[in-house]
């Protein structure tokens, strides 16, 4: 994959350098310096958030390809954790007050320990370093806490997410609280930088969908549920991807050993009628007589703990389709879990757009920093405002305005035909100009110019047909298309 370029980020760094050269120490200079320090590291920060028991930390481990995030209800799941690559395993505790960070032992093998010698209310976040090639290559993962709020995006979680450039939102199987969670999520996103431009949704625990049905039926149902969720969250998330998180973690983190593969091979070779009798429920799987299927109870428990019944069914089916050795089985289970699709989406939608995402976060921070300027810093603040205003005209940096439009549409205050709602979504989620107007990447300049012109005309007509309040949002969309049009070669 081509390395990301950071032209917009470099322009923001130049603004910071110019301002810092003229500023004396103080709150304004500290805030600008913090932005410059953040941009000095050319790494996209992706937060993983979700409500309590959404399978969030299991998803983090699957993305990392290593079990570094704690799962279950331990005290360390109540604080956010940043995962970074290092030549040794270690954990640093950062505090809310002015205390310097403190190192504590990592879990055996690396990762967040089950407990720490500090109350979680004192702790700002943990920095977890591990010898992991996946960490820091293209992005840094942040595991945010899941608490009691329906959407889990409470004040503490949001404070953590605001330090990130993008969000992966873990959503469990929809149920009675789904509508309430959606309303809370929409309300939380209002006024934030979160939108389809930098948010991916993940439908976790898809193994619980269509229990007792065939594997293909489970995936069809998962795709339907993910599609419905994505439709209701148009403009709020770029895409909703189904992932069997437990299966993904086991396969990506190489928890399956040759012993497990051998036992799964025995299951795959068993009489199909006997096997079907074993797989509907855990008790049936554990109680089937060993003479019927020669896999002892201890190994069956291990397989359940690693794969659950859904994963065991997927593993048996993968072996039936030719995944005979351990590496092939792991690869097949990664693909079948949905984690490969998610990793690809992260690369295409987030990593490829890292420059704009990181610059957008930096610009928002600088706008807040300007408000800290004192009377003697008025000239520097004024100059910085002008530079930010000029840079803010770049289409890729008008995401906040597009997010406002998307949230207005979700709330019903910006009524849009489905065609125009889809155009807004495409504009927000596209990385290249061609993608933003719904064209393939190899579209010719003439095709790109023609399509952009059509969209300008269409949104002009829309502006004239809607209320004055809603028109402000439509005008933003039209102006972005116009900026794109006049910047085309």
From TrEMBL:
Compartments (UniProt record): Membrane
Record's keyword annotation contains Flavoprotein: no
Record's protein name: Dynamin family protein
InterPro entries in the cross-refs: Dynamin_N, Mitofusin_fam, P-loop_NTPase
Annotated ranges, domain Dynamin N-terminal: 46-174
Keyword Transcription set for record: no
Main location: membrane
Pfam annotation, one family: Dynamin_N
UniProt lineage: Bacteria, Bacillati, Actinomycetota, Actinomycetes, Streptosporangiales
Organism annotation: Sphaerimonospora cavernae
Keywords, ordered alphabetically: GTP-binding, Hydrolase, Membrane, Nucleotide-binding
